[in-house]
UniProtKB/TrEMBL annotation:
Gene3D superfamilies: HAD superfamily/HAD-like, Putative phosphatase, domain 2. GO terms for molecular function: hydrolase activity. Its EC number is 3.1.3.-. It comes from Streptomyces stephensoniae. The keyword Metal-binding applies. Belongs to the HAD-like hydrolase superfamily. CbbY/CbbZ/Gph/YieH family. InterPro entries: Beta-PGM-like, HAD-like_sf, HAD-SF_hydro_IA, HAD_sf, PGP-like_dom2. This is HAD family hydrolase. Keywords: Hydrolase, Magnesium, Metal-binding. It holds the Pfam family Hydrolase. Its cofactor is Mg(2+).
Length: 214
């Protein structure tokens, strides 16, 4: 293994949450008078922290979202997670391979700590992560595409950025990883490869990842 630390994005990489979350987000924004399609939600918000939703809505329409926007969004999202959420196919096999090979890993997500934990518990991914291996945009001042979250994760895990590799599925996440000086592999299960520019390599199935990392 040429890397000392593998940093996983969470949504869409470990748990198959992006279709659920973006369907709910698009519907809620439309309900609030900001018409948004599922495709537009993916384009504008996939991989981002929720503050980006506030910023873009205000920038485009000059109107702030309601004070309880996040609470309502998360309540609807978590309810849907309990009914529908599953792990990304093959993700646990990859984690098991890293454990067997003695390679450190962690998760660095734009989602809140609560969102990460809800998803991990529902899918069983929680068995693979100690508390101190979980990092959220809540932990830093700026979310992706800023490099802060990935740099914070590397520092806390005790690994130099150049010895880290990031596994991402969004343009914002790829940009953040590159800004952090890390290699990044783009998972193309939902996002076309041509949207993930500047990656070290692509893969469309989790079974391909161990060979890329080796």
């Amino acid at each position: 293994m040429r890397y000392e630390l593998v940093i996983f994005d969470n949504d869409g990489v470990l748990v198959d949450s992006e279709p659920i979350a973006n369907t709910i987000l698009a519907g809620y924004l439309t309900e609030l008078g900001h018409p948004t399609s599922y495709e537009e939600s993916l384009r504008d918000y996939m991989g981002a922290a929720v503050h980006r939703v506030h910023d873009l809505v205000e920038e485009r329409g000059g109107e702030k979202l309601p004070a309880d926007f996040e609470a309502t969004l998360y309540a609807r999202t978590f309810a849907a997670f309990q009914q529908e959420l599953v792990a990304v196919d093959g993700a646990e096999d990859v984690l098991g391979k890293l454990v067997a090979d003695g390679v450190d890993y962690c998760v660095a997500s734009s989602g809140s700590h609560e969102k990460i934990r809800v998803g991990h518990r529902k899918t069983g991914i929680d068995q693979w992560f100690e508390e101190e291996w979980i990092f959220s945009s809540e932990d830093v001042g700026r979310g992706k595409p800023a490099p802060d979250l990935f740099l914070h994760a590397a520092e806390r895990m005790g690994v130099a950025p150049e010895r880290c590799v990031v596994i991402e599925d969004s343009p914002l996440g790829v940009e953040a990883a590159r800004a952090a000086g890390m290699d990044v592999y783009g998972f193309t299960s939902m996002m076309p490869a041509d949207r993930l520019t500047g990656v070290t390599g692509y893969f469309s199935d989790m079974s391909q990842l161990p060979e890329l990392l080796a």
